[in-house]
Amino acid sequence: xxxxxxxxxxxxxxxxxxxxxxxxxxxxxxxxxxxxxxxxxxxxxxxxxxxxxxxxxxxxxxxxxxxxxxxxxxxxxxxxxxxxxxxxxxxxxxxxxxxxxxxxxxxxxxxxxxxxxxxxxxxxxxxxxxxxxxxxxxxxxxxxxxxxxxxxxxxxxxxxxxxxxxxxxxxxxxxxxxx
Length: 179
Fold this sequence. Notes:
three-stranded antiparallel β-sheet, four-stranded antiparallel β-sheet, mainly beta, 179 residues, single chain, Immunoglobulin-like
């Protein structure tokens, strides 16, 4: 267990929220599960996540995190600020994203309740793992091959936008009058 650690990563959930009680910027919170595949200890992980809208191939956000020491596995919340990303509402309304928001049977769970569906996201993780080797403290770069997918539910995106004044974003929401 003192060799270079191999990490496993998965997205456990996505929620809309704020980065604090008085936050001005809306955020998405990604719950990420991280584990050392052989179950051993990890001293620290510094990593960056790049989020891409899968079918559009559109790089959407980057966020970094510092993970404190753990043994076996841990969970963390990765916060994606949506500063300029709130203009992504335009992306959601374009093509199948916009269609899916208004007609959820076309994407996602298809239960027809008006809140289903989602947008597939691809997440790529890279960074540095700190661990103890046979000869003392060691580091190892994590390769970009640590990738996973997640679905951003349309319901979460709506909640994110509805929780903040749409007049403060860079776009005009189509269901609101403009004059």
